[in-house]
Amino acid sequence: MDIKYFKKKKLPDRPGIYFFKKGKPARAGGDILYIGKATSLKDRVKSYFSKDPKGKQASYGAGLIENRGPLIVKMVQDAAKIEWTVTDSVLEALILEVALIKKYQPKYNTKEKSDKSFNYVCITKEKKIAIVRGKILNKEKFNSFFGPFPNGNQLREALKIIRKIFPYFEDKKGIKGKDEFYKQIKLVPENLIENINNIKNIKLLFEGKKGRILSNLKKEMKVCANNKEFEKAGKTKRQIFALQHINDVALLKGDDFIDNKIFDPAPFFGCIKGNKVGHSDTKILLSTSLLRIEAYDIAHMSGKNMVGVMVVVEDGEIEKKEYRKFKIKTQTKANDIGALKEVLERRLAHIEWPFPGLIVVDGGISQINITKTILTKMGLKIEVVSVLKDKRHKAKAILGDKKNGLKYKREILLANSEAHRFAINYHKNMRNKNFLI
């Protein structure tokens, strides 16, 4: 593969899976030479085109041999193109990578490798979780098993994250009283029914069916709320939020290389297509969005016919079916902050709606502060930005979370503009309706 080809590719600075492929068409998946994962697709793939010891850029060479070994150099030489799939998180990339490697058995992932030294996540017939080495894996003992995972430390970190969302029992003899301690810190289920449900969700998670889990949990939460089981509904709501905001920073450590080994251990699942990956598997395995952005705006005329709106941009696209209107009930004067407070409180009371990864408000620091106050009060960790306008009501600056402000500038401005349009139209309709009365 030539360095000129790579330079034309604009890989995103996001977690995901990348594919080195042959140039010639082959059977489904047969053109894949290597599958890897990355916390940053841009940086990770760039590392394959390193500088040689003299600092000269090369398509492959001495610098790459020192870092990765001759087999990887050969793989880069054999490859004709790079494709990729973006994932929601490092955790999700890990699962997707293992699933795709297991299915396609790429030449350079499996060369000189043995599954016997790797780890599997197993679900026992007693509905417990175990990590088992391939060489002692007794498939008849387990209901389900997933793997192989080449990095044991990374797998254990992944299970720690999963266990905080879906507590489970371990299939191993530990320190006496350990289960009781884990129960106190809510890392084991409170009863057998909860354990069965959690194991079912963990199984779906390792099958890449996060979307189905979220759908089931939302239905369950709605039933609990209708039955006035508010404590149970609140618990389910927290699980939904945790799944939508996986905090997998622990998996970022040691993500890139295993010394000169072909198998590449890094992150895991919930995907969108980056460059026409062409694998139907990604659609089957994954059904979650890159980022849900909710934008809010208030419209009125000197405090009269005051309304608020919520619009949604998901994966960079407007989702009109997710739009919501709010007729302001608590404000009788021109009070944009008070109106925004009411809209956010009413929206966040709808625990059956998906939570956003980012909230966009129209205005300045005051709007950011009231939004953060409401989120803190409700125990929610959602990033917030505001769009500051000039005298002509044109976007002048994005305030608040700078990282997301830069990364999602286009989506933020799109959401803000759409919220303004939607709010003005709703206000005009209300005003015309009241005028005719």
UniProtKB/TrEMBL annotation:
It comes from the Bacteria. One of its GO terms (cellular component) is excinuclease repair complex. Residues 292-375 form the UvrC family homology region profile domain. InterPro entries: GIY-YIG_endonuc (IPR000305), GIY-YIG_endonuc_sf (IPR035901), GIY-YIG_UvrC_Cho (IPR047296), UVR_dom_sf (IPR036876), UvrABC_protein_C (IPR050066), UvrC_RNase_H_dom (IPR001162), UvrC_RNase_H_dom_sf (IPR038476). One of its GO terms (molecular function) is excinuclease ABC activity. Residues 13-110 form the GIY-YIG domain. It holds the Pfam family UvrC_RNaseH_dom. GO terms for biological process: nucleotide-excision repair. This is Excinuclease ABC subunit C. It comes from Candidatus Nomurabacteria bacterium CG_4_10_14_0_2_um_filter_30_12.
